[in-house]
Amino acid sequence: MTIGSQPHQALPKDSTHKTTKAAIIEAIKAGYRHFDTAFSYRTEQPLGEAIAETLNLGLIESRDELFITSKLWSSFAENDLVVPATKMNLGNLQLDYIDLYLKHWPLKLSQEVRQMPVIREHIFPLDIKSVWEGMGECKNLGLTKAIGVSNFSCKKLQELLSTAKIPPPVNLVSGDESTLAAKEIEGVLQGKGYPCLSFWTVTSLKRLQRLKEKPLLRWEISIVVFIPLLCLVWQISMRWLYEQGVSSIAKSFNKERMKENLDILD
User: Which residues sit opposite 201 in a β-bridge?
Assistant: First the structure.
């Protein structure tokens, strides 16, 4: 179980490279040690600079104190491009290795695409077997300690598991959009006897309000509605995820909110 921080692509309007770096440093000061980034988020460079600065300041003694997750962007989803793309990630991060490297989306995109969303003409079928072999090579070379996937459906997971020499222990999914689907995805890996760790992006209040229509979550959402004075909405959400054994990834540029997110452990 972890609570991490995600310097995501949906940055505040006034955010800059410098602002992102400063927010990450504050997160490390607050006690965060797991950071989720990606090529398409455009946050690898400020994260790498923040790590270097916190080491120089003595806020952490070693890079090994941190757990860094990054992702293989879908424009590089070809066997011979995987290792060079991983080295590019590492160059951006100024690191020797990534703790967890995920295949970002179960598809291939044309070379010029750098962010979602994309038009249909830029989307192509993914040769998951050859790409996964490339990611396995990254692990063998020591570029990453572990490999996994992100946003994979049950069908895509089954396809990967049918050929993978290294089963993916992690599927990063957003649990706020479809709890039933997320649970089913977890079951695919667990049913095969593999450990499964799903990361759920902590949702916003607007999304929580939409989720009230989902029967499975109606009771949990009622907690949010009826106990607003005891703690903050996102704290209830994160605490509930914590009690389910789910790793939460929070995104905030607010120093006080970073601390409030960790208060759920008290």
Answer: 249
